[in-house]
Design a protein that fits this description.
Order of helices and strands: EHEE
Helix content: 10-25%
Radius of gyration: 14 Å
Distance between the termini: 24 Å
Number of helices: 1
Length: about 60
């Protein structure tokens, strides 16, 4: 999964108030992703995540 936007600032973890409408993205992704990261370009950035959708056969 990859999300792209035109803000070149790297994402940062926050500790939002419970009624805040944003600020939970990295916490959610880090909780469900096997790996995740950011690729910053001159005029945009990609935030990517590898999310397992099924259990690998070796772990079944």
């Amino acid at each position: 999964m990859t999300v792209t936007d035109t803000n070149t600032d790297p994402p940062t973890s926050r500790d939002p108030d419970e009624d805040a409408e944003g600020g939970r993205g990295l916490a959610l992704i880090s909780g469900i992703a096997e790996h995740f990261g950011t690729v910053v370009r001159r005029d945009s950035k990609d935030v990517w995540a590898d999310i397992l959708t099924s259990r690998p056969a070796a772990l079944a």
